[in-house]
Amino acid sequence: MRTPGLRSPFAPLIALALIAPACTGDDTGTASASSTGTDSDGTSSTSSASTSGGTTSGTTSAGSMTETGGATTSAGTETGTSGSTSDTTGDTTGGEPVCGDGVVDPGEECDDGNAEDGDSCTNACTAAVCGDGVLQVGVEECDDGNADNTDECIDTCVAAFCGDGYLGPGEACDDGNAVDDDECTNKCALPTCGDGVLQGLEECDDGNDDNTDDCINTCLIATCGDAQVQAGVEECDDGNDDNADECVEGCKTASCGDSFLHEGNEQCDDGNIVDSDECTATCTIATCGDGVLQEGVDECDDGNKVNADECSLLCHNPPISVQIAPGGTTPLEGGNGGSMFDDACPPGQALMGFDGKLDGQNWHGNLRGLCATLSVEVVDDAFAIKVEQAGYLVLRGANNQNGQGWMRTCPVGTLVVSVSGRKGNLIDQLTFGCAKPMILEDENGYSIALGAIEYLPSIGGNGGTAFPEHQCPNGQVATRQRGRAGNDLDAFGLGCGIISLNFQ
């Protein structure tokens, strides 16, 4: 009979004996089980479990579980769809690489796509570094782009200071330490500087701390370039020899006319205040339209944006009238009958057409030229030649012809420049060509040119043989009627003139 609450002292030994076979490697039992189910999304899954040698493992479609020695480790794999972000760096396609497009192309160290030169990527698409001459905001105190440690910016892009170990502007010494009682004080002065006694390496010692007199606080004689402005002597002193900043050689404040180009403020500086040379008195490069007459370059300069006024946009004086000088001639075509004639329009006029009558046999019985005056006019803020009808030349050929009357007049603004037709012993047919005289302007000034030739309808019969078109030479216009005539028009040709302009 067992007494309640008391445990047999042999119970642990009995339990150990029952468990021991399961802990040995001699007898191994394996059990497995599997089950199949359906998940909430309708997907079938299978799970299995096995026990072998005291190890139980379980597997499901969503992962795995392993239990060894009473410890369970599980790992799961979840597969799904998620957004992805990629950073693509490569060549710019469709054209030449461009610095500033935000894409790092071959040859670029970086490309941040902005115009900020003071960040980590410069406007030249190079990584910002100390010594590149570009101040990197928030990183560098200064960056003068050089390795000179004796100026105001040392080569670590830190502003020069007393104690940096470099002898800078206005310093008598700089030992780079914080010891005040050695050979160089913490004010970068020699140890006895300021006691009023000249000794050792001192250039001067006036016993005061006034940096604007002739002895600065480091016991050096005040000089231009010591970064201390000497009152009454210097206008400025920035401690460098850069003549492109605000303080130039001789410690003078930069100004137009000092012969030094002040970057960002001057386009040029030739050291004078002459307005008519290549650099104006305001230190801007002389250009047409600046209102300043540049000698030997500009004919005029009224400084406005109107072309056809008293001074053109290319700074040329305007044309005010037209003149015509004698020019060449075209060959005479036709027979040798009748008498010679050569009739010219009045000075400054040119031929704009002809009229006459045919003989009863359809050859030309008579003819006379129609002259026009030429003048300068303004059309759409440009100068042009205006052609206006004037009067007729002498009628050549018999006046009693009984054939068809005719008239051929050039289109508005054009003048006769050529003739062609048919001939035998007489002139059977005439065809006139007209062209527009134009005023052109380039950097060298004004010139006259002719536009394309427009041909008037032929007049006359088809007898005789064709003769080719004869044009006035070298851009000239017809100013004379030439030929031979008796009762009919025996021969015909043109006399020509050279158009030129008169200026104000």
List the keywords.
Vitelline Membrane Outer Layer Protein I, subunit A, disordered N terminus, 1 helix, rod-shaped, five-stranded antiparallel β-sheet
Looking at the overall shape, the CATH architecture of the domain at 322-503 is Aligned Prism
* Shape call: rod-shaped
**Annotated CATH topology of the domain at 322-503:** Vitelline Membrane Outer Layer Protein I, subunit A
Strand order in space, largest sheet:
1-2-3-4-5
Number of strands: 24
Helical content stands at: under 10%
Low-confidence stretches: 1-93
3D architecture notes:
This protein is mostly beta strands and 504 residues long. The protein has a domain at 322-503: Aligned Prism (Vitelline Membrane Outer Layer Protein I, subunit A), CATH 2.100.10.30. It has one helix at 11-19, and strands spanning 30-38, 44-52, 55-60, 63-68, 71-76, 247-248, 252-253, 319-329, 333-334, 339-344, 349-358, 364-379, 382-392, 396-397, 405-409, 415-423, 427-435, 437-442, 445-450, 454-455, 459-460, 465-471, 477-485, 489-503. The protein has a 5-stranded antiparallel β-sheet with strand order 1-2-3-4-5, with no helix packed on it. Strands 8, 9, 10, 23 and 24 form a 5-stranded antiparallel β-sheet that branches. Strands 11, 12, 13, 14 and 15 form a 5-stranded antiparallel β-sheet that branches. The chain starts with 10 loop residues before the first helix and ends with a strand.
